[in-house]
Amino acid sequence: MEKKYLRGLFISFVLLSGIVFIVSTRLTDTAKGQDTENGIHLRGTMAQQIGEYPDTMALDGVGVKNLDDGFFELHLDPENDTGLMFSRFSVDQYRLDADTVLNDAEITIIFPLFGSPVPEALADYWQGGIAEDIFLHGDTGQEAPIIPKVWSEVATWGPALVFIDGQQITGVEQILGVPNRFDALFGHVMYSSNPRDAQTGFVPNASGDAPFSPARPADYQPVVQEASVINMLVRSEEIDDNAFPAFSLLLHFDFLDVVPIEPLPDVEYLTYDMLETVDVESAVTQWLSLVDDTAALVAEIESPDEPDAVASNDSAAGTTVSFAEDIQPIFQTRCVFCHGPESIVGSPPNGLQLDTYENVILGSSFLPDVIPGDPDNSTLMIMLRTGTMPALGDPLSEDEINLIAEWIRAGAPNN
Ligand code: HEC
């Protein structure tokens, strides 16, 4: 127990220490000028799901998945450390935490507040709410080395209100000593260079032959000093040592197509000074309706002609289950730590490995665990349906089990 706690503390510390640098950058930046009216206004689309619990970094690319819809809108005023950011996207199947798998869920996230209410408490971290033009992560010593060094055009931290199908996930009671009137979690957002292959999700090390490892923070590909991706990470306060990073809940999504947009008309940015007096309910209502409007606008931009939208809905209703997109992530999350390269069950032919398509089909010496076209007689299905496997944790959800059965029934294709 003690070790678990320490690791959590370490990670929080690394995350927190990143902002010290942001503060100093901010101080030098103020000399730049007074262009407070413009600020930075961006919209990211082409949402990409970066892993899911328990591996929300997915440095090996497994579990990285392009979503059909989704946007992230960023309006930041770095001069005054104020702004408003919001995002909405849908996940078809997503393991949110140890106990929850979301199915066809709409996620809405709002970031209303930046900077610090209490300078004495973690002042360095919170005072510099919004940073511009800095290196983060990797071996910079700024932010945790959970990804390689990146170049950020703008980066920030703040409370994040998270809604799943309109229901808010409750956050912590206080934010740095002040009551958390918004029930927010915490979020980190940056508009930065993308250390990840946008197609495969793979985050290479310097030689490109293995994934980047947090244990070797200096081993990364050269950094392009050009931002291209909005990266969003929202986490709980609670620590979970089974997860990487070690939080009980962590949402991690990228937005790959980023364009400049107009400022928001008639929106007053919130500051900590206003926090005690603000009418929380009406503020949240206003933000949510702003997200609704933007979602409608983005939908219109993305698919101007109706027939296309209908056609894509039809094909989504078809039964094409993809091994790479649907099945592998389940094995990766729930099985590979036993049935994998460093498995406790041994390598093929004696032990079953579920880390690659080839190994899944190979099975073990005892059985071909997957019989293409015949889920009912496949050992793997029998073990899942009886709850014998996974040998650790909850049984797979009914949806996950059905998905695997459907894939086997379709002939267990390598698709
Ligand atoms: C905590 C470790 C652990 C986890 C997690 C786990 N297994 Fe196993 N599994 C084992 C052990 C141990 C065996 C028995 C040794 C063997 O058969 O390789 C086994 C056996 C199996 C077998 C029978 C293999 C054979 O041919 O005899 C199947 C099929 C299987 N597991 C599927 C799964 C699936 C699917 C998952 C994930 C949903 C999973 N297991 C998760 C440990 C685990």
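^ heme C complex. The mean pLDDT is 82. The chain is about 25% helix and 25% strand.
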